Amino acid sequence: MTDTSTSPRRAARPPRAPRRDAAENRLAILDAAISELNHNPDASLETIASAAGLSRRSIYGHFSTRDELIAELNDRGIARVTAALTPIRHADARVALALVGARLWSEVEDVRVTAQLAIRGPRREIVAEGLEPVRRGLLAIVRQGVGAGQLRTDIEPRTLARLIEGAAVSVLDEAVRDDISYEEGHRLVMLVALSTAGLSWREAAELIDASPELALEAQPEASTSLSAHSSGAQA
User: Distance (Å, rounded) from C-alpha 138 to C-alpha 94?
Assistant: First the structure.
């Protein structure tokens, strides 16, 4: 009698993990891109590859175009900013608002040129969509403050939230233009956000000085290096 049984199917092989050197090279490229683009927003892939200690051929194995590289930098930046800002809560909406400004500055200060390029550049609509959770959080803080009588009530909350966002971004523009210090930018972004929200300059300064959680040393240290963040890499 003929044996018609079949042997068990070979189990599907799990996807191969990226080679360690490929993953490390990709992160080296991204870290080099942050550094080079902050010195020269027009830096080429070849310049970035050289800064990463890699050949031109190596970088094209990971990113076929400069736009593709910048897109990944944007995506990682969005994720980092969202993770830092969306958890912010405080019983006093004024303090919460200042914290949003302070944490935002902490995340973008060392990458101010590439951050400005992301917000103002050709991918600004994609970046804006990615930052929507941050905008929702800001609007919630504004509504909290308006409801509690802590923030101005003469402007509709959604409009006020957009104006506060614009004020914070203007600090980034000024930081790129005038190369302001980390300490100066930290205080400035809180002052302009609070002033836009309805506080006088004296009230804003007094609130900042009286709130330990707003002190420069109280802010979490941002990591602009990408070595702690893994992503798909190519061999």
Answer: 11
